[in-house]
Design goal:
- The chain has one helix at 2-22, and strands spanning 30-40, 47-60, 63-76, 79-93, 99-112, 116-117, 120-121, 126-138, 142-152, 163-173.
- The protein starts with a helix and ends with a strand.
- The protein is elongated, with a radius of gyration of 16 Å.
- The chain has one domain: Porin (Beta Barrel).
- It is mostly beta strands.
- Helices cover 12% and strands 61% of the residues.
């Protein structure tokens, strides 16, 4: 039953984000689709796959704000964790000819399918995330980056072991 409720929440969150990106108000936002592969960096041997569709809006000359709804699958020791959420990310860019290096920092919220995963007590099905990353955008629309993400419940629940992960991301602006 818990899995069905968490699955419904994940699908609902992603559907809402997709509707917002399709709205006329989002027309001024640059859109990007990213796929990522990841691994856990705090002792658990996991592999992770993430899909995100970001909306990006210029705030100042080299400062952008991004809304990043995500869907993720994490696998370790025969257990699976499904994750859906959204982060608000600030992106600083430094254009340099045919390549534009960037730095990301952001935070968001996630709904996860289980509150215990590979011996870690996450505390509940809602987790916050903090993200940091760097990469490069190419003129042809491709982007390649590294991202670190910490997920935990931020003290909402008694148990709060959290998960730390690294990702290699490949994206394309459309």
């Amino acid at each position: 039953m818990k899995f069905k409720i968490a699955g419904f929440r994940l699908v609902s969150a992603f559907a809402l984000a997709a509707a917002l990106f399709a709205s006329p108000a989002a027309a001024a936002w640059q859109k990007e689709a990213d796929m990522a592969g990841g691994w856990n960096v705090d002792g658990n041997k996991t592999w992770q796959a993430m899909v995100l569709v970001a909306g990006e809006h210029r705030l100042k000359q080299n400062l952008f704000i991004r809304v990043e709804p995500t869907l993720e699958y994490i696998q370790a020791s025969g257990q699976a964790l499904f994750d859906g959420g959204a982060s608000l990310v600030a992106r600083m860019k430094a254009p340099m000819g045919s390549a534009t290096p960037f730095f990301d920092v952001g935070a968001g919220g996630n709904v996860v399918s289980r509150s215990q995963f590979v011996g870690r007590q996450l505390g509940g099905n809602f987790l916050f995330d903090l993200v940091f990353g760097a990469g490069v955008e190419l003129k042809n629309g491709l982007a390649v980056s590294y991202r670190f993400r910490h997920m935990s419940n931020g003290g909402l629940f008694k148990e709060n072991e959290g998960l730390d992960s690294s990702y290699i991301m490949v994206g394309y602006k459309f």
